[in-house]
Amino acid sequence: MKALLKRLFSDSFAFAFVNIGNKLLAFVLFPIFIKYLSVNEYADWGITNTMMLVISYFVILGSDAALAFYYHDVKTNEERKGYLTATILLSCLAGIIFILAFFLLREPLSSVIYQAGTKNQWVLFTALVATMFSVINQLLLGYLRLERRKWVFVIFSILNMAGSSLVSIYFVMVLHQGLQGIFYGQLLGQGVVMVGLLLLLYRHFTVHVRMPYLKDLLQYGVPLLPTLMAFWVINTTSRLFVYYMISPKSAAIFDAASRVASYIVLLTASFQLAWRPFSMSIKDREDAPQLFRMLAKGVLIVGSLVVMGFSFIAEPMMKWLAGEQKPEYFEAYRYMWALSFSTVLNALHLIIGVGLFFHKKTPIVSRVFMQAAGIYLLGSVTLIPLFGLWAVCMMNILVYLLINLFLYRENQKIYPVDFRFRSMFIYIAMFIGLMSGITCLQIAKVDHLWLYYLLGLFALVVAVFASGLVSPKRLLQLRKRVQVQHNRESRLQ
């Protein structure tokens, strides 16, 4: 088990380079774009990204998850190459359909979506073509990850983000292309990386595409589409609700909070990238359930500690990033902890429902996410007019708690794992209470906040044990085992 954990953390550490680079770029881009874009243009950027995300799901059609499954399920390299070729072809065909449709309908679509109307008609089209290149890159990078060519994956992933970001900065700062310039940069940067990846992997493609491969990809991937749509509803429609139900200014503030709060992706996305191939490779081991239980607790505890720690510096960081010329963004710090903690809960569901993926029970996962999406839509429409951005934060946490609960019940039927779920929920309730109190103190501008921060950290450590999530007795037993193992290794040396 020690070797397995070492491998998982090694892969996660390598993939973290990608996320560190992406997040550093996000911090660089944030102050640049809010300086050169108006508040409405910044809000339109968030709306456009929201639209492109849902379209990317229909272009991919769940084939990335299907490719990961069949890569480990088949026996020969030729079969793996066949599935890769079929995956790229399937996404290209779907992407071409969307590109043609957006070209023909760009004016009426832009007039409905944006307050600026047809002024943004070419923004939609350019963003869509850039999204198509991004999808191809995502699939090819995923194949590199499955091949365990992790450092090649890291290099091309950073090039993919850095190249498009640098070109976008040039179009926005130097050429003053505004919102359109962001997507010109993405189009050029991601296009170059796509060509490089295709040249790198051209030997992994086959000349002919077998229909059984396409059928397998669709049968495995399409049932995941409702899950992805539900995921889109939960994670991105909040921008639409805020944009249309409150104001573009509030949508810009929420988008700023979401972008800075995405620092947590440095922790969760690195783990998620390594999780799928790792979990699939150990699914038949007898000690796998024990390992999954430990990882679930670890993700929750480490994630909550990171979220609380970052909340201590969230306000000064937002003021530094936005600058004195954009004070309207300052209040975004209040919502960061809730948005980042919901990301932790999202990562947790992959472990909680791990058996459903092993046994190809993806329709169950889809049903759970669709139920949660319905609750999210109903709650958002009802609460956002009353509580504003806080309603979005509350609903994000609530739906991911429900998703984990529903998946836990379904997973236990086919792949029982003792996650100590009751203790996890008690710990989460304690954490939310602590963070709510800290946020109230920050808004009230009380003196000597650092003392309350230390008290909050101490209370969170106490909550780990008081909730029953970690037993002091078992912790001492584990420490003794580690010490015994260390002594044995010392004697052998």
From TrEMBL:
Annotated protein name in UniProt: Membrane protein involved in the export of O-antigen and teichoic acid
Organism this protein belongs to: Thermoflavimicrobium dichotomicum
Keywords (A to Z) from UniProt: Cell membrane, Membrane, Transmembrane, Transmembrane helix
Coiled-coil boundaries: none
Residues spanning the membrane: 12-34, 54-71, 83-104, 124-144, 151-175, 181-202, 223-246, 252-275, 295-314, 334-357, 364-383, 389-408, 424-444, 450-471
Localization per Swiss-Prot or TrEMBL: Cell membrane
Pfam family, one: Polysacc_synt_3
GO cellular component: plasma membrane
Alphabetized PANTHER family for the sequence: O-ANTIGEN TRANSPORTER-RELATED (PTHR30250:SF11), PST FAMILY PREDICTED COLANIC ACID TRANSPORTER (PTHR30250)
Membrane association type: Multi-pass membrane protein
Principal cellular location given in the protein's record: membrane
